[in-house]
Amino acid sequence: MAASPEAAARDWKAGRFRPAYLFAGEDAAAKAAALKALKKALKVDELNVSEFSGDAEDQAAEIVSVCRTAPMFSERRLVVVRSLRFKAEARRALAAYLAEPVPTTTLVLFATDGAAQKKGEKDILADAVARHGLTLTFGPLGTEEAAARLKEEARQAGFELPEEAVAAILDEAGTSWGILKGEVEKIRLFLKGRKSCGPEDVLACLGFRRDAGPFELSNAIERRDLKASIGALQRMLEEGSSGYEILPQISRAVNSQVKAKRYLKAGVSSFEMWGKVRVFGPRQQPFLKALEALSETRLLNDLKACLRTEADLKSKTWLDPGVELGQLVGRLCRK
Q1: What integer best gives the mean pLDDT of the chain?
Q2: Which residues does 175 contact at the CB level (< 8 Å), separation at least 6?
Q3: What pLDDT was estimated at residue 214?
Q4: b or e along 8-19 (b: 16 or more beta carbons within 10 Å of the residue's beta carbon)?
Q5: Phi, psi of 110 (to 5 degrees)
Q6: Residue of 144, 178, 133 whose CA lies nearest to 25
Q7: Is 278 within 8 Å of 168 (Cβ atoms)?
Q8: Which of 169, 230, 293, 324 maximizes the CB count within 10 A of its CB?
Q9: Cα–Cα distance between 160 and 195 in angstroms, integer?
Q10: pLDDT, tens digit, for every residue of 104-118?
C-alpha cells in the first residue's frame, strides 16, 4: 500500500505505526527527516535502534533476527536497512518475516534503484511491504506544489511567507522538501516569535547558509579579498579538491558580478537584482562595495581569465592546478 509522507507523519504523531515502511524516491533530505520524525514518534533509544547497510546477502538473516527480538526497556524497536541491494533469496527471507511481523518492531527499508532484481522479475519484498506496510515516495516537488507547502509549513510554524520570499527560497534552495522544511525552521528561529516575515528576513537567513564552508572561496572572490581567497583556496586544495571542482566557484562569483552590473545598468531594482544573481543576507553589502569599484570591462576581462585558466588546465596536463588557480585568484583580487 502506498501513502504520502505527510499522511504517514500524521499517523506517527497519533501513535499509529505499520510493521514496515519502504522509503522510495530521490529526495534524500526528506527521507532523513522522515526517519528522524519516525524515530521520535516511536520513542526509541539507541538500545532499540539497529541499522544495516543492506549491501551484503548475509545481513538478511541478522535483520530478521533483530526484528524478532523484543525491545529492551522500551515499547518498540526500530530496524533500518539503508539500501536494498539484496538478491532474491535475501529478499524472500525479509518478505517471509513481513508475513508474520513482530508488532513491537518497525522495519524501515530504503529502496535502491535496480536492486538485484532481474528484468521483469516480481519484487516479492516490495509486494510484502505493500501488503503489510506502506511505501512512501519522496520525490522532487513541482514549483507550485513546493510553494504551497512552504506557505503551509510557515503558517504551522506561526508566521506568513510573502510571495517574493517564497520565490527567493525556491530559487536558492530548489524544491527538495527536506531542504525547504529546514529553511522554514531556520526562518522561524530567526524571527524570534515575530508573526510577520519580510523578504529581508528570508534573504538574511539564506545568507547564513550561503556564507558557510562550501562557498567560502566564491564569497571571498565576490569581495575581492585576496587574503581570504588565497586562504580558502589553500584549504580546498589541502582537503583534496581538484582544480575542476574549485574553478567553477571562482567563475560563478565573477559571472554573478557581471550579471549584477548589467542588471543595475538596465535599471533593475536592487531587490530584484539580488534575487536574480542569488546573493542574499550578509553577502549583499560587501558584494555591492566590490562591484562599485569594478568596471564592466574589468569584469569581462576577469571572466575571460577564468575561461583561459580552464582551457589551460584541460589542455596542458603538466600545469600545477594549485599554481594556476593561485595566479588567477591574485589577478582577480588585484586593485
Answers
A1: 85
A2: 140, 141, 142, 143, 145, 146
A3: 56
A4: bbeebeeeebbb
A5: -90, 115
A6: 178
A7: no
A8: 169
A9: 7
A10: 999 999 987 544 444
